[in-house]
Write a structure and sequence with these properties.
By secondary structure, this protein is α/β, with parallel strands linked by helices. It contains eleven helices and twelve strands. Keywords: Membrane, Transmembrane, Transmembrane helix.
């Protein structure tokens, strides 16, 4: 009886210890790093090349054999940076990066090291989750989804979103820079309402870097300024070319050029706002622009009176939201009243007839 009791105690003890032992056997590996690449794509330094070597911090994580079962927590933004390095890259100082081969080897080793292991994708860019949720919960959901998609692409295996497995640290981003993030996010959000191009989706995701706890102080200001420039560059890909036009008739058409620099088709509305009522220009709805195109439209107009007018041309989505800054069209109208035109024409005809008659009389007089 005593032996049976002892055996039961051992079985219960093993049952209690086993789950903890299994948990202790799982090795947690965090594949995160501060951003070395600006939102617009330029690398600010080449430190990442050193970190990816077998002796570096990130290199040791993939090159060192794992004895225990591994659970990987990976920021896909870091993997995208390494992939850009592997394709060849240039530093912001205009010097060539030295980590091309190191990055390519590291990517291959990451695939090998994570085979069969549990992988949890972080929200893209590893932002402060509480701050991101407070500023833009819908964008945070996008960062989670995009991070899983990018990681699936790089590891060539399905990776599911897991929002509960990671707790981020806190960002020290200042109030003005939080406002900067919101302005940039809203501008890109309007663009994505009509543009589905992959390059714009990537830029949208990279804005999460502005909320990363790993950039603070002067570094966060650098990234914020770069984001503003990047947003302006994205907006300029979809625009109306400005121009100057001289109009001499009451009605007609002027050529207008629309540019779509994105890799996908775009459908927009073209809205006009004149500075005065000297001219009437009708809005154009649901204009389709082919990928990577310059489209010329014949814009109808009706002149009310002579003078100068500035017309602002704005591209909008179906909700009427501006997709970028307006373009200025300068119109100069010079109209001649129809009665004045008739009188001038008649006078010219009479002068011509008079000159002809005088010439005829001179010829006859000379013959006489």
């Amino acid at each position: 009886m005593r032996k049976l009791a002892s055996l039961s105690f051992v079985i219960v003890l093993i049952a209690l210890i086993s789950p903890h032992s299994a948990q202790a056997a799982e090795q947690r590996i965090e594949m995160i790093e501060r951003p070395h690449q600006l939102i617009s794509g330029e690398f600010v330094d080449d430190e990442l090349a050193t970190l990816l070597t077998p002796e570096g911090r990130l290199g040791s994580l993939v090159y060192t054999p794992k004895i225990a079962q591994a659970h990987w927590f990976i920021d896909a933004a870091l993997i995208d940076e390494v992939a850009d390095m592997a394709d060849g890259y240039e530093l912001a100082s205009n010097e060539d990066g030295v980590g091309v081969e190191v990055a390519a080897a590291w990517l291959e080793q990451l695939k090998i090291a994570t085979v069969g292991a549990k992988v949890t994708p972080l929200a893209y860019g590893n932002p402060d989750l509480k701050l991101a949720k407070r500023l833009a919960p819908s964008e945070l959901a996008f960062y989670y989804t995009f991070g899983a998609e990018r990681l699936s692409f790089h590891l060539a295996r399905p990776i599911a979103v897991d929002k509960a497995a990671w707790r981020s640290t806190t960002s020290k981003l200042s109030g003005p820079l939080r406002k900067n993030y919101t302005v940039n996010r809203q501008a890109i959000s309007k663009l994505t309402s009509v543009v589905s191009a992959p390059e714009l989706q990537l830029f949208r995701a990279r804005l999460a870097i502005l909320l990363s706890p790993s950039i603070n102080g002067p570094t966060s200001a650098v990234f914020a300024a770069n984001a503003l420039d990047g947003v302006a560059a994205q907006q300029s890909k979809l625009r109306v070319n400005p121009g100057k036009y001289a109009l001499t008739s009451e009605s007609g058409k002027v050529p207008l050029t629309l540019v779509n620099g994105f890799s996908t088709e775009v459908k927009v509305n073209l809205i006009f706002r004149a500075s005065n009522i000297r001219v009437i220009v009708d809005d154009l709805r649901e204009v389709t622009l082919a990928p990577q195109s310059r489209t010329q439209l014949a814009l109808p107009y009706t002149v009310i009176t002579s003078g100068a007018t500035q017309v602002n041309a704005v591209l909008t989505n179906s909700k009427g939201q501006w997709l970028g800054p307006s373009s200025r069209l300068s119109l100069s109208m010079t109209l001649i009243d129809s009665r004045v035109a008739w009188f001038t024409t008649a006078a010219a005809v009479l002068l011509f007839i008079g000159a002809g008659a005088q010439t005829y009389r001179r010829i006859r007089k000379g013959r006489a």
